[in-house]
Amino acid sequence: MNNEIKERYIRAKRALFDKAYASLNEKQREAVFTTEKPLLVLAGAGSGKTTVLVKRIAFIIKYGNAYYSENVPESVTEEQVHGLELAADLPTEEIEQLLPVFINNPCPPWQVLAITFTNKAANEIKTRLAGAFSGNETIASDIWAGTFHSICMRILRKYGDRIGYGTGFSIYDTDDVKKLISSCMKILNIDEKIMPIKTVMNEIGRAKDKLITPEMYAREAGVDFRLKKVADIYTEYEKQLKASNSLDFDDIIMETVKLLREDEEVRTYYQKHFKYVCVDEYQDTNHAQYELVRLLSSGENNICVVGDDDQSIYRFRGATIENILNFEDEYGNARVIRLEQNYRSTSNILDAANAVIKNNRGRKGKILWTDNGTGEKISVFTADDERGEARYIADRILENVKNGAKFSDHAVLYRMNAQSGSVENVFARSGIAYRVIGGLRFFDRKEIKDVIAYLQLVNNNNDDLRLRRIINEPKRGIGETTMSNAAQIAAELGISLFEVIKRADEFAALSRAAVRLRSFCDIIDELTEMSADISVSELPRFLKKQGTANI
């Protein structure tokens, strides 16, 4: 075979793929077809990044490295190449039937990992992937697609015992963490008025985002009085978490990184398991997330990150913009593709956006553009205060409605919940019907947290914090003094709080409440026994039947 035939074959093959993926623009296709080695996709707002991410994953599974592979069958003839060249004029449906002949090293779906930041984004990716493999939905379900925390939980549930966590460990939410830190501060005789709990929580959270352990934090604190106190609380807090076989939300990633760093067998397993690693919203990753991605992708080094350095707004909660800015330095031989065509906005909006973001410091640079036309001009109003701002919003809405619009045609966006007060007040006075989207989340409701606490305690009898939350829900006449005495006994004997109250009649300090404590333990024991035979959804129904929780 001469070089001319080989080059014509490769060109004809790529022309067929370009035609089959003609719904994508040139840069989008380049990102989809680039499957090997590190890839950074700088995706501007409204540039179709989710579409690119999903189609790239589907392409890897269907065709592997088919587009850029230069493998040509030795037996190919000039007539066959000519036939491929003519095939580019066929309808897309017929071209798609020809593409499997070019498959090159396709990847099994279970070897693809797609990480996102939110459950909503993860579910959208899963739904779109299911559509990409219509008729064979099991392929989409085999792909590891989820948030950083859900992926880490799958790993920890399987191998958490290697770093000291027992089966059925608990995860503490924000409310649980507040209570535990408060308890630790009482043990250490640190006044909450001098050192607010929220400040301590934020400091510990930032430390975990940076993979800083209590020992490391104590060393870095030096002679700083405040930081030394935080270090003491952090140390006691971790001790209490471990004793309760529990983690907080920040631990999920930190402990997974610890597992992968310390256990070579587990690290090697996952590096071989994941042939391709894809990460969305990479500009919002913190140091712990960066290290997790690095560890998981270091096997094949086929890592693709999608993000926008101009949309990084989460530095206040640990995001490290340097992760995306330094990607090419961290991952040698990386390819960078810029998605700059916007499908969502008009040019007036994009011109204004470009004028603003060009002043950003520390950016890789891109210019958004669109085919959507010029559009309406942007209006800017400067108010004297929040009341003037709210009045202006209400007046504009009333004017639009007077001119034929509907109230439901309008939406008011604000960055903080506190900003809604003045707007709601003016709306009420102006007779504007409105609906606040959001509010208290379902899982933040007290009764839901109580039911979950019951289930957590059933799953992990050592979870002292959840036990203290629901031992008197509903009221059982078990006071704080009784629980303090039980906690002291548990600390002295080195056993769980549940074990102490289960044996309450053995301790004089608990004798008056022994019957009530034993009754509570009987409920938990019965639920624990039932959990082996019935589904999780059945347990809350049993709680309701027994009058144990108001569900």
| Total DSSP helices | 26
Which consecutive residue ranges, at least 5 long each, have pLDDT under 50? Answer: none
Numbering strands along the chain, what is their spatial order in the largest sheet?
Answer: 3-2-6-7-1-8
What is the CA-based Rg, rounded? 29 Å
Structural class: alpha/beta
Protein described:
There is one protein chain. With about 550 residues, this protein is α/β, with parallel strands linked by helices. Helices cover about 55% and strands about 5% of the residues. The chain contains 26 helices and 8 strands. It has helices at about 5-20, 25-35, 50-65, 80-85, 90-100, 120-130, 135-140, 150-160, 175-185, 195-210, 215-220, 225-245, 250-260, 265-275, 285-295, 320-325, 325-330, 345-355, 385-400, 420-430, 445-460, 465-470, 480-495, 495-500, 515-530, 540-545, and strands at about 40-45, 110-115, 145, 170, 245-250, 275-280, 305, 335-340. The strands form 2 sheets. It has a 6-stranded parallel sheet with strand order 3-2-6-7-1-8, with helices on both faces. Strands 4-5 form a two-stranded parallel ribbon. The longest helix is centred in the middle third of the chain and has 19 residues, at about 225-245. It is globular and about 95 Å long. The chain starts with a helix and ends in a 6-residue tail after the last helix. The mean pLDDT is about 90.
